[in-house]
Design brief:
Blueprint lengths: L1 E5 L9 E4 L10 E10 L1 H8 L12 E2 L3 E9 L11 E7 L5 E9 L6 H5 L2 H14 L6 E5 L4 H12 L3 E6 L4 H6 L3 E4 L4 H7 L5 E4 L6 H8 L5 E3 L11 E2 L6 H13 L7 E6 L3 H10 L5 E5 L1
Parallel strand pairs: 8-9, 8-11, 9-10, 11-12, 12-13, 14-15
Antiparallel strand pairs: 1-2, 1-4, 3-5, 3-7, 3-15, 5-6, 6-7
Helix pairs in contact: 3-4, 3-8
Length: 297
């Protein structure tokens, strides 16, 4: 089978499309014929060799956590899913023709494989950081870097829970944030005052890692009211870095519910082939994403 792999840490150019042995579904796992794989910032952070405790890497290594596809192997002890089912979920080395998943759910009706591949880690992360930052119904949540996949999910989930949301993004994505129910403003010089003009902020999430932790603490009044998924230096300010996943099966179940009720939709901004994985990583690292980027197999 074809698989994206890297033999050394580095930039996007270390990624190679190689021939590899097919993986197989062990106990409690399923294997899918991958139709699409989500491109997440954690993918290129791991490729760069950043120290992420939840994702130890042994070289050579594959790439990717999220995927959608068709079940073609069911491991021992697995129930409720059969060969031929269309599923999406989280596993390992998903930039490949076949991948093993440890958490999955049946795809909601009407969702394409490309769309489905963009949800698993994104929704788990959004649910986790909303919980960790402790924002409640009727309060205001500031989301820095709000137009990407996690930001798109956070805005919609927070609004569904009765939380007022303020999002920062580039000028081209202001209408997109407003369409998701957020009060929108641009980042860049003067952004703190622009946020203040929109009202008091009870909690804040940093999704972009753009060096704004100090300002987020200032706006919320306490480092305990700020959580980041992108700035590894945040603990120096007393701010939590959230990088360890919670229950992915529970997150997938909630994603299915929200999608089925029309309360969650994350658009696919661009699709890439396996051979274009390096370009996908370059584009992801450049930021300014609206929704998700995915690899189509």
């Amino acid at each position: 089978m074809k698989k994206v792999s890297f033999e050394e840490f580095g930039g996007p150019d270390v990624l190679r499309l190689v021939d590899a042995e097919e993986p197989h579904a062990g106990p409690g796992r399923i294997r899918i014929a991958v139709r699409a794989a989500g491109v997440n910032p954690v993918d290129w952070r791991v490729r760069e060799g950043q120290v992420l405790g939840a994702h130890p890497v042994v070289l050579p290594a594959g790439v990717g956590l999220d995927a959608a596809g068709v079940v073609d192997e069911v491991g021992e002890g697995v129930t409720g899913v059969e060969v031929g089912d269309r599923v999406f979920g989280e596993g390992v080395d998903t930039y490949a023709e076949f991948a093993v998943l440890g958490a999955w759910a049946r795809m909601p009706e009407g969702l394409t494989f490309e769309e489905a591949a963009g949800y698993p880690s994104v929704v788990e992360t959004a649910l986790r950081i909303i919980r960790e930052v402790g924002v409640l119904r009727g309060q205001t949540l500031l989301v820095s870097g709000a137009s990407g996949g996690v930001g798109s999910a956070v805005l919609q989930i927070a609004r569904e829970r009765g939380i007022r949301v303020v999002g920062t993004a580039g000028a081209a994505n202001q209408d997109y944030l407003r369409d998701l129910g957020a009060l929108a403003t641009t980042y860049g010089e003067g952004w703190v005052e622009r946020v203040r003009r929109l009202g008091d902020v009870d909690a804040a999430l940093d999704l972009a890692g753009s060096g704004v932790i100090r300002e987020l603490v200032e706006l919320t009044g306490s480092p305990e009211r700020v959580v980041t998924i992108a700035d590894l230096g945040a603990p120096e300010f007393g701010v939590r870095f959230s990088g360890v996943a919670g229950s992915v099966p529970a997150a997938l179940a909630e994603a299915v519910d929200l999608i089925s009720r029309g309360k969650l939709h994350i658009p696919v901004e661009k699709s890439y082939s396996l051979a274009e994985a390096a370009a996908a990583h370059s584009d992801s690292q450049a930021g300014h994403t609206r929704g998700r980027r995915v690899i189509v197999v």
